[in-house]
């Protein structure tokens, strides 16, 4: 039948990684699929082996908690966004660190462009900043929103930037000129938790704190798919695409479960239970192009990262 | 991706300087993706500029005298520089270090005035020497060699060495790489087949004088020449037959479709460049006191569309961006000017659902549009009805399949779309032993040391 997948995913718990002392804010697989980076309120970034779950490296240096991490396209650098108002770039090859200063308040989100020569970050100073990675200098400051910026990222060809904020707006920017090209807004203006481009950058996936995830066609400014069933009222939960086996949307939920929807039919096809904490704070994207792997982390009380696989 | 959201009516030719990069360089060329500019300096060094960060990301230190030309391989991994120090160097930007590794150094016995890659294979290199000789250097294992391009021996019976040979002053591949076009000091264009290195045609251009430069429209069918008579000429090229051993080369006079010159000041031209769609031609004026780029509208009978004024620093070189209305020009003070077509800020884009209007529009409201009626009772009834209908409609609309994957890797292959009738041998020959210029190569980001902490 149309819209119903031939076989639903069956993710099973595979590994539980523990080490962080405070709430984990972000977990991300490296683009080559070998490593997993996690950042937490305990000011540390930990690098894990994505297959064995062994801890490989702990990066310390931030003076406040960390909200987000991002991998460079070559899996050789990690950028982190922290409440100490800085973005740091960590080299995994030679352990060097570069600090990007400029944000005047907590930095909340960070991402590389596909060539990894630029970084984009957003934070509680309501700006989006574009950075020259090689020189560590700010290239652009976009007066982007009127509330803290919760997510920002590049399109797959690096020509567009999408940002969203607690003001409920999703804005699309021309990466070269820094001009605002479009603003998407839902009628009720719910706070926006996360936003990202689809793999081909033709759509935008946005989750909002009215417990809804929407897929937007930004050309026509029309919402083409809505995913509901989970709970998202308080935290900036991340929703991502999963395309390694079938096409799914994956998101955490404040009922401590992970929800998996079929992209086309918008039906919940699996929920993953296991986290003890009250809320799941984040879900990373699925790593390896050939592996069906989900990493999840949750808020205080349950300080573990869980890996789920469907192989 | 951004082109779909930008105003399509802006895309014509650049009008204003967007950035000035101090680089001490004399010539600068975009790569074929338009992300980088290679800039050559008169002290023998060259730099690769990243246009996204507007910073030099690689320094090419190898020549000891001025750089005379720079060229990019089709996927931008290799850069070819030629210099007055008798060398041409191929640089590999995929090497992890800065300065990047040299892949090859090719030594000649005279200053090199230009060198270019074959458009399909960067191991085939065309070099022109200041002595007026052109060489085709093949670095491939099977074809290794260096062949001098020689004008046909149609007068070989009567001791060709006695007749004064005209010097070659320009040498370029056409965009397919199938032919080499050579300009001479006596105002001729010689066309060689790249594979056989034999001459296939000779065009005499009356009144042109010494040939100074060539540029091809992307399609390869149109050529513009610069010559010492201070006129740019555009030609529509004939289709050249495949080379046959004892066929005489075609002698043909070509009549330019357009002539571009400055009738008042009679300025000469330093360089010229077609726009990516071939509809515009930019000419860099050799004016000693100003920086002027002339833009001609070729689709509109070649009339002058605009003169761009870049200030007081005289112009040296001009190159058009491979896909955008953007130009790079260099000044004799050593600055690179990046020209762009500024698009006005659309404030309407900041507010979802709003539209900007050019002038005031008197709004005609519908009869009951802004009526204040206490509808609380009716509303609750109507609303419910409405909502369920709306929700149903919305559900139906959302049944439509979305495609989130297609187009992810879609990048136009710049060279391969140029297919030519007839002789495929030329392509097979050029594609034999492909270079390592794969599309997926990446330039490592070299981070400057952090002086803090």
UniProtKB/TrEMBL annotation, chain A:
Residues 17-309 form the WDR5-like beta-propeller domain. SMART domains: WD40. Coiled coil: none annotated. WD repeats lie at residues 17-58, 59-100, 100-141, 142-183, 185-226, 227-271. InterPro entries: Beta-prop_WDR5-like, WD40/YVTN_repeat-like_dom_sf, WD40_PAC1, WD40_repeat_CS, WD40_repeat_dom_sf, WD40_rpt. Pfam families: Beta-prop_WDR5 (PF25175). Keywords: Repeat, WD repeat. GO terms for cellular component: histone methyltransferase complex. PANTHER family: F-BOX AND WD REPEAT DOMAIN CONTAINING 7, WD40 REPEAT PROTEIN. This is WD40 repeat-containing protein. It comes from Multifurca ochricompacta. The lineage of its organism: Eukaryota, Fungi, Dikarya, Basidiomycota, Agaricomycotina.
From TrEMBL, chain B:
WD repeats lie at residues 30-59, 60-95. Residues 147-167 are annotated as: Disordered. Residues 151-160 have a biased composition (Acidic residues). It comes from the Eukaryota. It is found in: Nucleus. Keywords: Nucleus, Repeat, WD repeat. The keyword Ribosomal protein does not apply. GO terms for cellular component: Set1C/COMPASS complex. Pfam families: WD40 (PF00400). This is WD40 repeat-like protein. It comes from Multifurca ochricompacta.
């Amino acid at each position: 039948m149309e819209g119903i997948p031939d076989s639903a995913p069956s993710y099973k718990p595979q590994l539980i990684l523990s080490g962080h002392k405070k709430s984990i804010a972000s977990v991300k697989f490296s683009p080559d699929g070998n490593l997993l980076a996690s950042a937490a309120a305990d000011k540390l970034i930990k690098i894990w082996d994505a297959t064995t779950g062994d801890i490989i490296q702990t990066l310390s240096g931030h003076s406040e908690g960390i909200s987000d991490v991002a991998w460079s396209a070559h899996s050789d650098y990690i950028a982190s966004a922290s409440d100490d108002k800085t973005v740091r770039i960590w080299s995994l090859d030679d352990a060097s660190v570069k600090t990007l200063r400029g944000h005047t308040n907590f930095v909340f989100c960070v991402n590389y462009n596909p060539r990894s020569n630029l970084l984009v970050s957003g934070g509680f100073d309501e700006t989006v900043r574009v950075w020259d990675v090689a020189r560590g200098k700010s290239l652009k400051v976009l007066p982007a929103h009127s509330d803290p910026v919760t997510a920002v990222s590049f399109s797959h060809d690096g020509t567009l930037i999408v940002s969203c904020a607690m003001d409920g707006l999703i804005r699309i920017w021309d990466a070269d000129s820094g001009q605002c090209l479009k603003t998407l807004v839902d009628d009720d203006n719910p706070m926006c938790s996360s936003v990202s481009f689809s793999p081909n950058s033709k759509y935008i996936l946005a989750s909002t704190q009215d417990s809804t995830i929407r897929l937007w066609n930004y050309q026509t400014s029309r919402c083409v798919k809505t995913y509901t069933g989970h709970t998202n009222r308080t935290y900036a939960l991340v929703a991502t695409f999963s395309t390694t086996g079938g096409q799914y949307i994956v998101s955490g939920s404040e009922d401590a479960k992970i929800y998996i929807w079929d992209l086309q039919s918008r039906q919940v096809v699996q929920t993953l239970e296991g986290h003890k904490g009250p809320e799941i704070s984040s879900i990373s994207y699925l790593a390896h192009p050939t592996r069906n792997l989900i990493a999840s982390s949750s808020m205080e009380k349950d300080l573990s990262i869980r890996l789920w696989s469907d192989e | 991706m951004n082109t779909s959201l930008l105003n399509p009516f802006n895309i014509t030719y650049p009008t204003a300087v967007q950035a000035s990069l101090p680089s001490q360089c004399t010539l600068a060329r975009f790569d074929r993706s338009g992300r980088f500019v290679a800039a050559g300096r008169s002290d023998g060094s060259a730099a690769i500029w990243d246009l996204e960060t507007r910073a030099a990301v690689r320094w090419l230190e190898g020549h000891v005298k001025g750089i005379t030309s720079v060229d990019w391989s089709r996927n931008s991994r290799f850069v070819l520089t030629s210099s007055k120090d008798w060398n041409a160097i191929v640089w590999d930007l995929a090497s992890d270090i800065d300065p990047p590794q040299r892949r090859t150094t090719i030594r000649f016995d005279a200053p090199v005035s230009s060198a270019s890659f074959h458009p399909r294979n960067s191991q085939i290199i065309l070099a022109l020497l200041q002595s007026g000789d052109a060489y085709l250097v093949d670095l491939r294992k099977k074809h290794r060699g260096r062949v001098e391009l020689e004008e046909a021996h149609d007068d070989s019976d009567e001791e060709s060495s006695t007749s004064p040979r005209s010097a070659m002053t320009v040498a370029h591949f056409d965009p397919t790489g199938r032919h080499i076009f050579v300009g001479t000091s006596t105002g001729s264009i010689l066309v060689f087949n790249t594979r056989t290195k034999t001459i296939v045609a000779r065009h005499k251009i009356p009144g042109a004088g010494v040939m100074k430069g060539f540029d091809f429209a992307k399609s390869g069918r149109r050529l513009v020449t610069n010559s010492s008579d201070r006129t740019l000429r555009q030609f529509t090229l004939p289709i050249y037959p495949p080379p046959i051993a004892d066929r005489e080369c075609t002698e043909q006079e070509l009549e330019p479709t357009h002539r571009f010159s400055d009738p008042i000041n009679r300025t000469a031209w330093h360089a010229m460049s077609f726009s990516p769609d071939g509809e515009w031609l930019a000419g860099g004026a050799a004016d000693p006191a100003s920086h002027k780029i002339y833009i001609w509208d070729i689709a509109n009978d070649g009339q002058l569309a605009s003169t761009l004024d870049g200030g007081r620093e005289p112009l040296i070189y001009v190159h058009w961006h491979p896909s955008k209305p953007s130009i790079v020009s260099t000044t004799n003070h050593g600055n690179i000017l990046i020209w762009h077509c500024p698009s006005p800020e659309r404030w309407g884009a900041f507010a979802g659902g709003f539209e900007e209007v050019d002038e005031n529009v008197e709004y005609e409201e519908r009869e009951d549009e802004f009526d204040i009626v206490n509808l609380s009772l009716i509303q609750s009834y109507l609303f419910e009805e409405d909502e369920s209908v709306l929700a149903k409609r919305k559900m139906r609309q959302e049944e439509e399949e979305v495609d989130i994957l297609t187009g992810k890797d879609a990048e136009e292959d710049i060279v391969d779309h140029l297919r030519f009738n007839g002789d495929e041998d030329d392509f097979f020959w050029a594609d034999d032993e492909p270079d390592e210029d794969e599309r997926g190569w990446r330039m490592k980001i070299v981070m400057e040391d952090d002086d803090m902490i």
